[in-house]
Design goal:
- The complex is a heterodimer of chains A (about 160) and B (about 250).
- Chain A has about 160 residues and is an all-alpha fold.
- In chain A, about 90% of the residues lie in helices and about 0% in strands.
- Chain A has one domain.
- Chain A contains two helices and no strands.
- Chain A is rod-shaped.
- Chain B has one domain.
- Chain B is globular and about 75 Å long.
- The chains are: A mainly alpha (about 160), B mainly alpha (about 250).
- The interface between A and B is large, with 36 and 40 residues.
């Protein structure tokens, strides 16, 4: 039949074998494997922590950059506004100056025109008077003295002005 | 049965003079674990590959089991449970190799293992709760029934190593006997005078049944190692657990 007798010697040796084996397995094998597992786990954790920190830093940097970009954009818009305003002011100034100058020029030209017109009229009157005398001279076929001629011219001019 | 045991003995070809077979096989099993452990440590890398993956998986699995059955204190007992599981598993598998015998098919070996669990249970229980605190939980809640509860608990505690021993012993012995029987039947069928067709059928059946039994034996080896280890975890876990934790 099946042997169910307990052999105390085998039992004791088995207990000792197991305990020695357990110590050996723990010391040479399990401890090192657990250390490696723990080291790896710590390494992964540290890497993950670093990644998380870096991602936070990157997010902060991104936020900073966004803010800076916004500031730059604002400044840019402000500068453009200022430049546009300045440009408009300059443009208005130039236009105003040009208009003023044009007005002055127009006025001067009008004055000159009036003077010229008067001068021209005067000359034309003289010419007309001289021509009239010459015509009269030819008509009456007599020559008049210088004094008579001047009197005649003056009279003609007066008559012309009256007309 | 005596004949089967006799046959079992005859198939073993490793004998150390003056050393019982079970002890020799137990040393071989432990030696295999230690040698594999050394090889594993020699090839230990930070980035695991191949066998290291498997070993790490086994360790993490065992750590998970200790946590599952014993709570946060479980991993402290890893050396005991890991060695227990590996030793029983390798011992059980050893019997599947020709010329070897499972040391766990010897009742004294199993009792040795069960007694280690038994003493560890009470040692760690007393260490955790103190002698009075530990034996107090044997009494049960109604004080007038304390003596009866105490006796029942003591019997229960004493039966544990016996149940551990016999469960493992009979399971592994059955596997060993079955394999030996199949091997001996093969030769018996060969030597018997019978019609060739019947003889051929019997031999073929025997030949193909053996791998199936080996496969079943491997499964039984794993399950029995697991059952023994998990029960040990539960026993020690319940001994060190505090009442509020138990609830």
């Amino acid at each position: 039949m099946i042997n169910l007798n307990i052999d105390i010697g085998v039992l004791i040796v088995q207990v000792i074998t197991f305990l020695i084996g357990m110590i050996l397995i723990w010391q040479i094998f399990l401890k090192k494997f657990l250390a490696t597992l723990s080291e790896r786990s710590n390494h992964i954790k540290a890497t993950l922590d670093t990644i998380e920190k870096q991602s936070i830093e990157v997010a902060a940097l991104k936020s900073d950059f966004t803010k800076q970009l916004e500031t730059i954009e604002k400044k840019f818009q402000e500068k453009i506004r200022e430049a546009t305003k300045e440009g408009n002011e300059i443009k208005n100034g130039i236009i105003f100056k040009a208009r003023t100058e044009a007005k002055e020029l127009l006025e001067k030209t009008s004055e000159k025109l009036v003077i010229e017109k008067e001068r021209m009229l005067k000359e034309m009157r003289h010419e007309m008077a001289a021509l009239g005398i010459k015509i009269a001279e030819k008509v009456i076929k007599e020559s008049v003295s210088k004094e008579t001629q001047d009197k005649l011219i003056t009279n003609i001019l007066k008559d012309f002005e009256k007309k | 049965m005596a004949t089967e045991e006799g046959l079992l003995k005859e198939t073993i070809f490793i004998h150390l003079p003056g050393v019982p077979e079970a002890v020799t096989m137990s040393w071989i099993a432990m030696g295999i674990i230690v040698v594999f452990g050394l090889l594993g440590v020699a090839a230990l890398k930070r980035a695991p590959s191949g066998v290291q993956n498997m070993v790490e998986f086994a360790i993490e699995w065992m750590v998970g089991k200790t946590r599952e059955f014993m709570g946060k204190n479980g991993p402290k007992f890893l050396p005991l449970f890991f060695t227990l599981f590996l030793f029983i598993f390798v011992s059980n598998l050893l019997g599947l190799l020709p010329g070897f015998k499972s040391p766990t098919s010897n009742i004294s070996v199993n009792l040795g293992l069960a007694l280690i669990v038994f003493f560890a249970t009470h040692f760690f229980g007393i260490k955790e709760k103190g002698i009075i605190g530990y034996f107090k939980h044997f009494m049960g809640p109604p004080y007038w029934l304390a003596p009866l509860f105490f006796i029942i608990h003591i019997i229960g505690e004493l039966v544990r190593p016996i149940s551990l021993t016999l469960r493992l012993f009979f399971n592994i012995l059955a596997k060993e006997v079955l394999l030996t029987l199949l091997a001996s039947l093969f030769f018996a069928f060969l030597s018997l005078e019978m019609p060739r067709v019947i003889q051929g059928l019997l031999l073929t059946g025997d030949f193909f049944l053996r791998p199936a039994i080996i496969l079943l034996g491997s499964l039984v080896s794993f399950i029995q190692a697991l059952v023994f280890t998990v029960l040990a975890m539960i026993y020690i876990g319940s001994a060190i657990a505090h009442e509020e934790h138990e609830a």
